[in-house]
């Protein structure tokens, strides 16, 4: 019987982390534009993100990419999980729950985080059922919006 270990990813893990996140992107039909170098920078010293890797021996069987958020409504820091991937052969065995517990623990240690926030696609009922079982609740009055590209550039100099 093999043991799965969780550990914080370092910039040296960027290629392995990116391969796992690329598998997630393929599975959910998302584009994947992140490069190994971008991920190494993001999880490196002074970077914007942190990551966990789940390993069975040398094989990566799970990955989570997360960053801090602060909510004035909640009055505390939290953790935003942008990506959570569990290998097909590991699904249903509790690894996703273990990884989110690891994210919770890292967020509590790093930022005194008191909540986890994430987004689940409406066309992914299996993921939604997983998060529902853990106790995640929807935010019906909260709609995710993104500003990028030309509209983002148009803000230059507005401050």
Please tell me about this protein's structure.
- The protein has helices spanning 14-28, 36-43, 95-111, 125-134, 149-153; strands at residues 4-8, 50-56, 59-71, 76-86, 116-118.
- With 159 residues, the chain is an alpha+beta fold.
- It has one domain (4-153): Aminopeptidase (3-Layer(aba) Sandwich).
- The chain has a five-stranded mixed β-sheet, sandwiched between helices.
- Helix 1 packs across helix 2.
- It is globular, with a radius of gyration of 16 Å.
- 19% of the residues are buried.
Properties at a glance:
single chain, 159 residues, alpha+beta, Aminopeptidase, 35% helix
Topology (elements, then pairings):
Layout: E1 4-8, H1 14-28, H2 36-43, E2 50-56, E3 59-71, E4 76-86, H3 95-111, E5 116-118, H4 125-134, H5 149-153
Parallel strand pairs: 4-5
Antiparallel strand pairs: 1-2, 2-3, 3-4
Helix pairs in contact: 1-2
